[in-house]
Task: structure prediction
Amino acid sequence: MDLTHIRNFSIIAHIDHGKSTLADRLLEYTGAVEPRAMMDQFLDSMDLERERGITIKAQAVRMAYRDRRGEEYQLNLIDTPGHVDFSYEVSRSLAACEGALLVVDASQGIQAQTLANGFLALEHDLALIPVVNKIDLPVAQPERVAQELVDTFGFRLDEIVFVSAKAGTGIPEVLEAIVARLPAPKGSPTRPLRALIFDSKYDPYKGVIAYVKVVDGQVSGRHRLRLMASGVTTEALEVGAFRPALSREEALATGEVGYIATGLKDVRQCKVGDTVTSEEVPATEALPGYRPLKPMVFAGLYPADGEEYGALREAMEKLQLNDAAFSFDPETSLALGFGFRCGFLGLLHMDIAQERLEREFALNIIATAPSVAYQVVLTDGTTITVDNPAKLPNSSQIAEIQEPWLDMKVITPSRFVGPVMELLSARRGEYRRMEYLVQVAREGDTSNPASDPSVLLEYQVPLSEILMDFYDRLKSSTQGYATLDYDFAGYRASPLVRLDIMVNEEPVDALSVIVHRDRAYQHGKNVVERLKEVIPRQMFTVPIQAAIGSRIISRETIRAMRKNVLAKCYGGDVTRKRKLLEKQAEGKKRMKRIGRVEVPQEAFLAVLRLDD
Result:
């Protein structure tokens, strides 16, 4: 295919703005999928994606399109997720494209991820085609949304394409805009091979399958290859395109998107962002890859059955190949045994990763409470990173603890500004600015919150404050209309302490947390009260304590089960009764000294689901 007739593009949008449905219509119109094989959300191949109605993994597909002048074009679509937790997938996909469709729901208008992904595409110098979707809805306001796009991104009104992906309206106009407005790939067929790996997956027969965009040169089957970052050499078992299933080709030429079956069995040898080149005539300079993304949320994942530890490690290695933002390191807990400390981009990412491990690899997993990574400055001037509360040094060695903060953008109808600001202030948020997004509301329509002027609120918020239930609270306080996006802002010193939970005066490492000093008492009180309900009674008194260092801030006591030793005393001197009671008390003291309290699994699960 001539380089000038290739278009590589992505679809970016906020979650649930019809991105996957628009991709379905493009596949149907170009005949990339046979009608009998077509289904809704075709590119969302995982069961989880269909159940939740979201895109988790970026997917690529090649389409053949003949324009109105009769010329053939090759369109390579890379579908991307819309949730903020999967923005890394979006950034990798955009690096393999020259343009993007910016899709906005005609009934909801510009949302937080629309802004974030739109500006991310502009940073990559991508050409944008604005698309207003769902124009057939009764509550659709396409003129208002079009004006928002003009005011926010600087588009012209005549550039905006109006479509209904569900009904198929406007699809030919979208395809014509793609071939007319998006640039062809830049590259040279005569230079040495350079191909960017933007995704990968593992196949038990073909090894690691790398999803690539060929920037220079071409690659064919049985071609000797070298991965420039890792230095690994291999032979291409097969090359091909996505139609949308893997379809074998003779070669991938400059500008084309496809796959290379590398035959590599070690998933760590083929990293996303690496450059593939020829071993015989190697390129001298690698392509700019991706900045390694640092996980923001950490949690321990442990097998419910200790014998599944090896299977869990193998499953995590395969998941990491499909999800480059997922990371893990081995760790040991006195309470839960051997497991892994895992890093995630956010809570949804954590939830999806855990569910994929359980479904795809048939594992039963226990997850500890999520936490964040703290920077701890020691008294000798060195700085260490602590992602597990159990690894926090003694307070006498700590000069200060720094926690991660986020730059958060919340878009909400103006009538909900008060509740949103109240929620953010309660989560230690710091106000930055507020801006009204220009809208043209329908005349006389004041009953629908979507017709209110939208307000953009910018705050700085500690990451630890949004871990538990922030998103649910935000949605409930705005009737579901608010959307949010966030970026890492940096680390700031805060009065943080480690809160230890002790059962029978022994600390339980899996229940330790790092919290703000002002929140420590309430959190500790909640935990000890919950533990008192779920830990079974013993033959001796069991104290449950929450402590900061050596200071106890909250305590509950599980009363001992007591045998009535006076039952056989039907009379006689009181000294006999006292003697029996003293003997019983002495035995209980001895039992408490040598007895151990096994914290049941139900107690961990109850505390880990505890809502702050």
